[in-house]
């Protein structure tokens, strides 16, 4: 029950998908589930034919105008080209054909679902099938030189079509668009026209200036010098980069020299020979075992990838089928390995243990070799990072990274500076204590000053002149501030008078120099207004003319497109008829030759005829059959 409910849900989802796709472009059937399910077998077959016609335009056919056998043959041929596989496999192929002829829903609905799921992919496959499915020429016809040469040219044209199609797909996916290129060309042409007009206007304006030729020559020389300056700056930057790379290479070589000297300090000839032997063994292992094995695996993977690329486009059903086959083959391989181990290598055999140990050691050896290679690469990366960091430190601080001896001297210098720092710190502590004492003294003096001020105010109140001391101090402060402000004001007025005089003189000079320019500007403004009005009129004329030309161009493009399609169809039809005519001519010529040899009086030439050849073979087989029959009757 659960399986039946799942199947019903799957069928309903399938019908929903089919109805949704048929209601979209380019079908627009306006179906719902009820109307689609109530279609007659002939209507369902016509719907399937329409879908196939959308995939391949040659199949746009009204099935009422052809016999049911022809309809089934046509649909089966296209489904075979599209690599459709019935749900039941090859066992239900006859049932599938019968259901396709009668328009059975259980047969047609899965076909529609499969086709509508991958319309774009199937359109491409049908288009390629028109040119890539080879014509099956019998072997006896290929014995003719003309037919063989034509067949060879035909295969070469197929290969050329494959290459051109690949290039076309690459161009489609490369991001280039003819419309965008045309827009860019149009925009550049408009920009070119604008620049040309601007240059002409500037030339007219410059011609009125005195010595304009000399000024133009000077401007040209200035531009040349600027370009030369830019090229020299670029060369300078390139030379800096080359110098920087050379310094880095020198540093790496110096580090290598230092490491080699450091390694040669405590080394002996025996240790050097031992190290060289280890390196030689490791390199020999890499060259003789690891690298060939890796190269072979890369070649195998490349071969598999090339086979995958050479295969035609596959759908999800093809991938699922391949996965099931792979799983079955892996299971068979595991069973064969187990049988072989049980047959040739029993559990108590010592060879299996030794073989396992050898395989474990070889795996460990390969793993250690990979670890050593990774460690060497990591060491190289760390050395590069160290040189990069040292260069960064030199660029940022202007100093090089300290080495071991220099670092020791730097540490000793830090110790001496630390001693000086401690002494200075003691002095700062003493000064801080003294500052605290002075601050306390200042507070006491301030308190005493306040007490004296209070006593003075009390005496002033007692004498009847309260606020006298405060008023006197305030008057003295205000008079001092006023005198300072008067001095500043006097200096400011002098500066302002001088500045006003300078500005008036500058304005007069500018007015005298700008007077002719303003006069020319008025004329140019009037000219600009006239040109703007003329431009608007010309632009309106241009827009109207462009609109008419655009409409004419669109109609002409549509006519050209229709004529090109018709030309392509007629050319394809002509080539097909021409090839058919050539094949029929060859067949007719072979028939004439056969008839000529058959009716010839020459017995040797007559023996070459195919009819005589097959007659002799039939007679020989009959005689052989009689001999065999007599032999069995004798037994």
Automatic annotation (TrEMBL):
<feature type="coiled-coil region">
    <location>
        <begin position="521"/>
        <end position="573"/>
    </location>
</feature>
<keyword id="KW-0597">Phosphoprotein</keyword>
<keyword id="KW-0969">Cilium</keyword>
<dbReference type="InterPro" id="IPR043016">
    <property type="entry name" value="IFT81_N_sf"/>
</dbReference>
<dbReference type="Pfam" id="PF18383">
    <property type="entry name" value="IFT81_CH"/>
</dbReference>
<comment type="similarity">
    <text>Belongs to the IFT81 family.</text>
</comment>
<keyword id="KW-0744">Spermatogenesis</keyword>
<dbReference type="GO" id="GO:0042073">
    <property type="term" value="P:intraciliary transport"/>
</dbReference>
<dbReference type="GO" id="GO:0007283">
    <property type="term" value="P:spermatogenesis"/>
</dbReference>
<keyword id="KW-0970">Cilium biogenesis/degradation</keyword>
<dbReference type="GO" id="GO:0015631">
    <property type="term" value="F:tubulin binding"/>
</dbReference>
<dbReference type="GO" id="GO:0036064">
    <property type="term" value="C:ciliary basal body"/>
</dbReference>
<feature type="coiled-coil region">
    <location>
        <begin position="147"/>
        <end position="263"/>
    </location>
</feature>
<dbReference type="GO" id="GO:0060271">
    <property type="term" value="P:cilium assembly"/>
</dbReference>
<protein>
    <recommendedName>
        <fullName>Intraflagellar transport protein 81 homolog</fullName>
    </recommendedName>
</protein>
<keyword id="KW-0966">Cell projection</keyword>
<keyword id="KW-0963">Cytoplasm</keyword>
<keyword id="KW-0206">Cytoskeleton</keyword>
<keyword id="KW-0175">Coiled coil</keyword>
<dbReference type="InterPro" id="IPR029600">
    <property type="entry name" value="IFT81"/>
</dbReference>
<keyword id="KW-0007">Acetylation</keyword>
<comment type="function">
    <text>Component of the intraflagellar transport (IFT) complex B: together with IFT74, forms a tubulin-binding module that specifically mediates transport of tubulin within the cilium. Binds tubulin via its CH (calponin-homology)-like region. Required for ciliogenesis. Required for proper regulation of SHH signaling. Plays an important role during spermatogenesis by modulating the assembly and elongation of the sperm flagella.</text>
</comment>
<feature type="coiled-coil region">
    <location>
        <begin position="319"/>
        <end position="399"/>
    </location>
</feature>
<dbReference type="InterPro" id="IPR041146">
    <property type="entry name" value="IFT81_CH"/>
</dbReference>
<keyword id="KW-0221">Differentiation</keyword>
<feature type="domain" description="IFT81 calponin homology">
    <location>
        <begin position="13"/>
        <end position="136"/>
    </location>
</feature>
<dbReference type="GO" id="GO:0030154">
    <property type="term" value="P:cell differentiation"/>
</dbReference>
<dbReference type="GO" id="GO:0030992">
    <property type="term" value="C:intraciliary transport particle B"/>
</dbReference>
